[in-house]
Amino acid sequence: MIDLSFLTEEEQEAIMKVLQRDAELKRTEEERVRHLPEKVKDRVQLKNMSGQWFYEAKSRRHRDKIHGADIIRASMRRKPATIAEVAQNKTSKAKISWVNNVNKEVFQPPDLHGIEEHQEEEQQKTSWSSKEVTPVLNKSEERPVKAAVSSVRQRRNPFNSTVSDDNLNNGESEDRPVIVPQLSKKEIWSLSEDSPPKSNLQKDETEKPERPFVELTDEPQKELVKRPVPKARKLIHKAADSGSQREDLVPKPTKQSEGVNGIGTTPRGILKRSSSSSSTDSEVRVSQTLDVQKKNGFATATIFEGEGEKNSLTEEAENSAQNSLEKLKQVRFSSISGKAKPLQSPQLHHGKEKGEHETLKYDKKKNSENCAIQSDSLGDKQIPAAKPLGTYSSALKIKKIDGLQEDASAASPCDSNRSDFPVNESFQTDTVTPKKLETPQKTSSNVLSNSSNERSADKTHEKKSNQILSHESESHKNFTDGHQLSAETEAHEASNTKSTSVQQGSEEELNPVLMALKRSADRKKPSKSLEDIPSATSNKEKINKPKEELVLSAEDVSTVTSQPDKPFSNPEKLKGLSKSVPSFLQEESDDRETDTTSESSYSFGRIKKSPSSLTNLSSSSGMASLSSVSGSLMSIYSADFGNVDVKGNIQFAIDYVEQLNELHIFICQCKDLAVADVKRQRSDPYVKTYLLPEKYRLGKRKTSIKKKTFNPVYNEILRYKIEKELLKNQSLNISVWHNDTFGRNSFLGEVELDLGAWDWNDPSCKQINWFPLKPRTSAITLPLENRGEMKLALQYVPHPIGGKKTLSTGEVHIWVKECHNLPPLRGNRLNSFIKCTILPDTSRKSRQKTRTVTKTTNPVFNHTMVYDGFRPEDLKEACIELTVWDHNKLANHFLGGLRIGLGTGKSYGTTVDWMDSTSDETALWEKMMNSPNTWIEDTLPLRMLMVAKLTK
Amino acid sequence: MSDGDYDYLIKFLALGDSGVGKTSLLYQYTDGKFNSKFITTVGIDFREKRVVYRPNGPDGVGGRGQRIHLQLWDTAGQERFRSLTTAFFRDAMGFLLLFDLTNEQSFLNVRNWISQLQMHAYCENPDIVLCGNKSDLEDQRMVKEEDAKELAEKYGIPYFETSAANGNNVSKAIETLLDLIMKRMERCVDKSWIPEGVVRSNGHSSTEQLNEEQEKGRCGC
After folding, report:
1. Which of A182, A354, A391, A649 is most buried, by the most CB atoms less than 10 A from its CB?
2. How far, in Å, are A63, A212, B167 from residue A312 at the CA level?
């Protein structure tokens, strides 16, 4: 559904007229299509003339077959659901469900697809039988497709030239019953014509979206969510009408309404609730989520719908709520940057997989951990203007500025840090909103408009909601932070020195992680980058800088959000703040725009981008960006080979179609796949192909995702446009993945074919064959072949000379000498540089890189990087990530990397996936630890890494 | 207007900033008229036109004419209708993306529109024809032809400088789009399993080079 309440009545009328005309045209078209088979015997021709080619293509993208016109029509008629209506829906549920079933093919609100699928299964036979009702209306053409779905029928090979049209049809279609949309429309129309006051059509449309709420009556909170929605919308548009046109963007007004809703009405109530949520009772926390939802109004609610569905989690509403809560938390943390952060991200990350218990534990843990800090920061809160103890207190400041003293005071003593986050966030949003109008924040409004576009129109793209969420939250943050920033910057300038001392005071009580973070945050300039000078630290420079640095970085951040590429005037800074974020996000990460793949991690990454830089900026809080570490670990390829035991088989055929110069891979089906999601005993598999090595950058191809099956049937053709000659040096990698909406996709097995050895003329090679799935052996996709090696030396300097006071922290010096035999991605024109991050800190500040050495596969860098703030015990928890990149105008390509640490798999007690050093790497690190003040040199082979995504 | 007596229903959609002349262009195309008065489109509208499409065979001989019923969706360029208009993107088979040659911003926004399309259209790389409209207002021109061509080239889409006022290039643009669609349709209905002869008989039409460019992008269907 789209929110169209911004339309005036006249406008609605005008649009309805257009839609009417469209409906007439459609009717004519249906009529024509119905008679087509009589005239046209050729199936291809028929497919063309009926427009089926288009609907098939469309359904591959938009899983529903709804016409935009119908969405609009439905949206316009939609009235805010009153409580009475909801209740009515509940009672009439039984009746409706049959209707819904019949119409399922017709009106599958995309948002609910997952849910419906689930319901289908619950209803089992009944639904199947009722499903059968639908096809009756369809022409015989659809039959075979259906059959292919329900009974896994052995397929004929399309690559054999004797293939009939029938096969072609099947090969092209998805497993979901393909129905000529026109025909389906017919049903709708007849329904709507027959039906009394409110047409069935409308009922269907209006009710379906509510069905999850209605049907899952055991989750009353869902309804709670539902009700406020229309209200919020109403408000929005009142506000919107009076405002400028821009205000019509949905999310923006939503926020406005928050202003009205949230603060105006019940600020205290909200506070109370959320503070009570500091208990570990999950029930309470669910309600808290709802609270947040309410406050966020329509926007969040929609997203939740989408999410719940996406995960098909609605069945376990608890779970889904939990999940969404987690999500919220992530979002919040990253923007608010409480003191408790360090452990948060990794834990959340894992929590995601392990479920709610983990979160609970985590919360407890965190609470206790933060007691000390809490009290500290509370102390500061009382003198809010003076001491910006991080964003947390500055958030409070904003509140005060906005004259919400009561809230601020209410927030203080007994709230635990954790429960403060959501509250703060919402308050920030709330309070900032009015301001927003005055301050021209280009970025935020841009982001907003983006997200609004995406969201409103794309609610139907169920898959996107994740991204949307990120957008949404990003936009939230963008302006929240913006304001925070403005408030903060001043404060920083005013009380730079003070904050430092405060920090140091509290440092003693903190746990090691926090300390480590603090230290890393304390490093005003985290590290020095010296070229061609092996050692020598320049502490003086460092000491001189801090103040300026802080202020500057504040500026930086404000520009980061708006225009990340804006060059800084200070060249010295440029070095420190290198911003060459590799674009593997676009290139290689497994997110599809249209599918969910590893989107969640993707979006987390995105969410964090700007906020976490802000976090770092407010470094007086001592909050480094540990939080953003493993949550946003991104793989270049799909990553997480996880713990799934590979089993099963895949059936496919390949062929080279000379006329089209295309390699076709006909993916038939898989059998007996491994269980990816053990908890829910399900896999949502899809098949992905790569041509390797990725020389020609043809990228991946994917099939659709089949939900909840270990025996997915695809019958899809994946194609590569590539000269046959070139295939000789390629191998075809076909892998099966479980699509996890929230977490990472897990690897279910793969098959690799050497196309060089393939005899395209041998008909037996074109046959459909079963292949056993194999576990991925080692280096992901790219063969383990030589990635080159790096010569480097490390040194730990426990007591750097000239350091301030007698700190017990030392420095790690990394002398990157040279690389040998880098893989020539583009002939020998390789322009390489090396990037260095010390994990767990992925913040921009922790990132350093060498210059780019052009046109050689054996670059000599002789570049020394120095990181300070290491106590001996920190060395055990940290890990140097050195990655080699090919620098390209458009994108940097990852060549290989090293991770030098102890390889324990853990950092500060948290399991992390980047602690994966090889024995060689570990040996080097150990040597370094054991012989301080000595350069330890080694030449290590570069390997494939899941590169920790750097936060800006 | 539509009696079902046609072979193909082809749906196009015109999009672009407000005031670039989407409505006018379509009006010119369907009715051959022009109204210089600016009447903003309320949300969405469409016009229809019946044409005959005659693909050229490989030997240059015209094939059998196909009767096409064109449904030309006209969208409001105004931001406030955006959610509404984008909902229609998914139902269009091809897109006329317009900008105003006398308005640079409208040209700069072409990128955004394209990404909107990539997001909302029925596939990731739908057929698009870029039209720089108001070419009759040469003296007010703000967008260089080369720039527009370059942009179009970047996206691998055809570019025309059109004038809804004098009708220049209007039908050419739309017919090019139609050609692209018909080609795509043929490609989509996969002929790789069909013996060669059959493919041939469907014929190829004249704008081969355009098609080449399109082929570079993966066929989304």
Report:
1. A391
2. 15, 11, 53
3-state class of A226 per DSSP? helix
- What are the tokens at A40? 């046209």
Q: Say what the pLDDT of residue A39 is.
A: 81
Tokens of A785: 């072949």
Left if phi > 0, otherwise alpha if psi is -120 to 50, otherwise beta: which for A642?
left
CA angle centred on A261, ends A255 and A262, rounded to 5°: 80
Instruction: Please give the CATH topology (third level) of the domain spanning B6-55+62-189.
Output: Rossmann fold (3.40.50)
Whole-model pTM? Answer: 0.33
Within 8 A by CB and 6+ apart from A120, the residues are A104, A127, A128, A131
Take residue A549 and report the two structure tokens written for it: 């640095």
Question: Which bin fits A309, alpha (ψ -120 to 50), beta or left (φ > 0)?
Answer: alpha
Average pLDDT, chain A: 57
Chain B hits for A58, Cβ within 8 Å:
90-91, 122-123
- Model confidence at B220, in pLDDT bands (50, 70, 90)? very low
As a whole number of Å, the end-to-end CA separation of chain A is: 36
With CB atoms and an 8 Å threshold, state whether A452 touches B82: yes
Among A14, A248, A664, select the one facing B192 at the smallest CB separation: A664
Contact A11 B88 (CB under 8 A): no
User: Are β-strands A936-941 and A789-797 bridged in parallel, bridged antiparallel, or unpaired?
Assistant: antiparallel
What is the token pair recorded at A410? 């209410």
Please, which pLDDT band fits residue A65 given cuts at 50, 70 and 90? Answer: low
A180 and A30 Cβ atoms separated by less than 8 Å: no
Strands (DSSP E) contained in A21-120 are none
Q: Does B108 touch chain A (CB under 8 A)?
A: no
Nearest residue to A101 via CA among A119, A83, A114: A119
Among B84, B198, B152, CA closest to A6:
B84
Query: What number of CA atoms fall less than 13 Å from residue A255's CA on the CB side?
Result: 31
Determine contact: A722 vs chain B, CB below 8 A. Answer: no
Which residue ranges make up each domain of chain B? 6-55+62-189
Alpha carbons A619 and A388: distance in angstroms, whole number: 10
Residues 6+ apart with CB under 8 A from A468: A303, A306, A451, A454, A455, A458
Quick one: how far is CA A306 from the chain centroid?
A: 14
- The 10s digit of each residue's pLDDT in A152-169 is 444 555 555 443 444 444
Residue A458 has pLDDT above 80, yes or no: no
Q: How does pLDDT run across B28-52, given as a tens digit for each residue?
A: 999 998 988 888 888 899 999 999 9
Measured between alpha carbons, how far is A389 from A505 in angstroms, rounded to an integer? Answer: 12
d(CA A331, CA A334): 5
For residue B193, the chain A residues in CB contact (below 8 A) are 158-159, 161, 163, 167-168, 171
Q: Residue A729 class from Cβ within 10 Å (0-12 exposed, 13-18 middle, 19+ buried)?
A: middle
Distance CA B183, CA A434 (A): 53
Residue A15 gets which letter from DSSP? H
Alpha helices in A413-570 (DSSP H): 417-438, 442-458, 465-507, 512-522, 539-544, 546-562
Query: Closest Cα to residue A293, out of A216, A214, A229?
Result: A229
Cβ within 8 Å, pair A51-B8? yes
CB A460 within 8 A of CB A111: yes
Q: What is the ipTM of this complex?
A: 0.83
